[in-house]
Amino acid sequence: MTIKDYLPETEILAQLAEEAAELAQAALKLRRALDGTNPTPVTEGEARTNLLEEYADVCNCMFYLTSSADFETIARYQREKILRWLARLEGRDK
Fold first, then answer.
1. What percentage of the chain reaches a pLDDT higher than 70?
2. Phi and psi torsions of 62, nearest 5°
3. Cα separation, 7 vs 23, whole angstroms
4. Is pLDDT at 54 greater than 90 in this prediction?
5. Could you give the CA distance from residue 7 to residue 29 in angstroms, rounded to a whole number?
6. CB of 51 closer than 8 Å to CB of 22
7. Gap between the Cα atoms of 57 and 61, Å rounded
8. What is the pTM of this model?
9. Rounded to an integer, what distance in angstroms lies between the CA atom of residue 31 and that of residue 50?
10. Given this model, what pLDDT does residue 93 score?
11. DSSP notation for 27-91
12. Which of the residues 4, 19, 21, 47 could staple to 30 if both were Cys, CB 3.0 to 4.6 A apart?
């Protein structure tokens, strides 16, 4: 049995949205722990661990929402987005 045997795609999408929001919150919390401008009682180590846990949750949802045929497309999107990100950063430094 897999998750898809228990939940329809609509519920996995809802779970993904929830986990993505939690990932965003975890990233912001780690930023606070690193920056110190707006202190948090959470240590940097705790915040980093939470970020990884939330990332794993998002990955799990995406695993069940995509097929093996999607992995090549995802890899292409990742490469394209990294190149655009680098281009923006390089343009900023000129």
1. 99
2. -65, -35
3. 22
4. yes
5. 31
6. no
7. 6
8. 0.88
9. 12
10. 75
11. HHHHHHHHH-SS--SS-HHHHHHHHHHHHHHHHHHHHHHS-TTHHHHHHHHHHHHHHHHHHHHHH
12. 47
